[in-house]
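Support request from a user on the community tier.

User writes: "When I paste my C-alpha cells into the form, the page sometimes reloads and wipes my input. The last time it worked, I copied everything first. Here is what I submitted, just in case something in the input itself triggers the reload:"
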C-alpha cells in the first residue's frame, strides 16, 4: 500500500448491536444450530478455554478424547479446573471410535463432560462426531466440540449431533479472520454453567457475562466495544460461503484431501500419515517423511522449488516436526491448482534431495483424477 492510498479499514461507522446479532445469526445458520451462539472477541482458543472453565469444576469427571495436539491442551485446562480426567486416545494416524468412547463411559459412569476435536488441522485426522455424539447423549454428559478445522470443510451438524458446546473459528476452511470466533451453547449447557460457582464471571473468559449482559437482554446493547474489523470480516466470510453454497465449499475441501492423498501416493516416497481415507480431515493432509529423512528438509526444499510462492506446505509442529509434512489445503487453498502445485513442489523436493526420481507428472495426474472423481467434473 502506498502512502497516499486512502485507508479502507479505518473510520468505519460503529458496528451496532443489531448488526453484531445478525452476524451471530449467520454463524448459527452455518453451524446448523438453533441454540444461542456467542461471537467471542478473540481467537478460537478463547471460547475453547471459556467452555471448559465454565462447565467444569472440582468434582467433575471429564472424558478427554485426544486425537491430536488440541486434545492435549484441553486435558491441561480440565485438570486446572479440578476435574478428574479420563483420557481416550487414538493414534494421530487414525480417529477415535464411538465404541472406544462408549467403553470409557461405561467404565466411568460419573463422567459429566466430554471434550472432542472434530478435525485436527495439525495432524490431518477427523473424528466421527455423529456416532460419538449419540453415545455421549445417551450417557447424559455434556459434549464440547472443537470444530475450528472442520467448519466449512466438512458437514457440521451441531444440533443434530447433540453437541452442547461447539466452537468455530474463521481462519481455516472459512477463509476468514483469526481474531474472532464463536461458540454455540445448548440450553442444557447454560443450566450446567449457571449452576457452576467456579464458572468465570466478570472475566474475558466468561460465557455467563455474555448470557446475562447480551443474550438475556435481547441482544440490544453490546457489553463492550466489539472487534469491529474482525466481525465484519467474519460476516464476509460467511456471506462468501453462502454465495458459493456451503455444499460446494465442502466439496472443494473433500476434493483437495482426496487429490493430495492420491498425488502423494503417486510420488512414491511420501505416504499419507492418516491411514484410512475415512479418517482423513478434508481441511489438511499430513504426509509421512521417508525413514531417515527430516520432514523439515523436504519442506524447505519444496518451498524453494515452488515458483508460485503459494503452496501451503509446512512442517508439523512440536514432536512431529521431524516426521510429518502438512499440506494446509483449507480456505482458498482448497483449490485444484494449489493442490497440483503443492505436489509439484514436493516432487521437486524429493528429486533435489536425491530421495526419489521425478514423479511429479504421475502425481499431478493422479491428483487431478481424484479431484475430478470427487467433484464429478
Ligand atoms: C487451528 C485450530 C485451532 C485454532 O488454533 P490456532 O493454533 O490459533 O490456529 C483450534 N483447534 C483446532 C482443532 C484447530 O485446527
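"...and here is what came back when it finally went through:"
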Amino acid at each position: 500500500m502506498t502512502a497516499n492510498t486512502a485507508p479502507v479499514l479505518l473510520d468505519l461507522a460503529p458496528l451496532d448491536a443489531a448488526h453484531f446479532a445478525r452476524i451471530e445469526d449467520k454463524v448459527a445458520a452455518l453451524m446448523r444450530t438453533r441454540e444461542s451462539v456467542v461471537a467471542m472477541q478473540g481467537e478460537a482458543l478463547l471460547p475453547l478455554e471459556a467452555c471448559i472453565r465454565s462447565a467444569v469444576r472440582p468434582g467433575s469427571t471429564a472424558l478427554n478424547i485426544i486425537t491430536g495436539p488440541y486434545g492435549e491442551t484441553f486435558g491441561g485446562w480440565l485438570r486446572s479446573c479440578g476435574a478428574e480426567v479420563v483420557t481416550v486416545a487414538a493414534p494421530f494416524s487414525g480417529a477415535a471410535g464411538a465404541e472406544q468412547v462408549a467403553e470409557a463411559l461405561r467404565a466411568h459412569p460419573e463422567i459429566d463432560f466430554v471434550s472432542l476435536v472434530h478435525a485436527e488441522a495439525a495432524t490431518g485426522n477427523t473424528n466421527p462426531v455423529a456416532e460419538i455424539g449419540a453415545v455421549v447423549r445417551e450417557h447424559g454428559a455434556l459434549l464440547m466440540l472443537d470444530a475450528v478445522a472442520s467448519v466449512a470443510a466438512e458437514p457440521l451438524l451441531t444440533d443434530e449431533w447433540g453437541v452442547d458446546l461447539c466452537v468455530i473459528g474463521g481462519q481455516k476452511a472459512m477463509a476468514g479472520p483469526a481474531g474472532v470466533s464463536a461458540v454455540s451453547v445448548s440450553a442444557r449447557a447454560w443450566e450446567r454453567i449457571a449452576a457452576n460457582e467456579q464458572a468465570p464471571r466478570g472475566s474475558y473468559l466468561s460465557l455467563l457475562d455474555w448470557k446475562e449482559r447480551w443474550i438475556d437482554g435481547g441482544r440490544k446493547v453490546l457489553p463492550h466495544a466489539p472487534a469491529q474489523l474482525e466481525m465484519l470480516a467474519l460476516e464476509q466470510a460467511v456471506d462468501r460461503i453462502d454465495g458459493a453454497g456451503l455444499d460446494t465449499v465442502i466439496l472443494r475441501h473433500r476434493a483437495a484431501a482426496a487429490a493430495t492423498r492420491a498425488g502423494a501416493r503417486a510420488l512414491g516416497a511420501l505416504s499419507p500419515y492418516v491411514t484410512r481415507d475415512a479418517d482423513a480431515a478434508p481441511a489438511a493432509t499430513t504426509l509421512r517423511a521417508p525413514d531417515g529423512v527430516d520432514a523439515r528438509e523436504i519442506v524447505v526444499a519444496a518451498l524453494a522449488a515452488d515458483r508460485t510462492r503459494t503452496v501451503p506446505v509446512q512442517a508439523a509442529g512440536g514432536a512431529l516436526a521431524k516426521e510429518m509434512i502438512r499440506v494446509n489445503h483449507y480456505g482458498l487453498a482448497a483449490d485444484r491448482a494449489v493442490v497440483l502445485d503443492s505436489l509439484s513442489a514436493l516432487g521437486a523436493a524429493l528429486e533435489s534431495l536425491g530421495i526419489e526420481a521425478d514423479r511429479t507428472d504421475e502425481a499431478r495426474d493422479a491428483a487431478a483424477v481424484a479431484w475430478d472423481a470427487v467433484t464429478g467434473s
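Agent notes: The reload is a front-end session timeout and is unrelated to the input. Residues 43-45, 70, 117, 120-122, 146, 148-149, 169, 172 surround pyridoxal-5'-phosphate (CB under 6 Å). Residues 1 and 7 are 9 Å apart (CA to CA). Escalated to web team.
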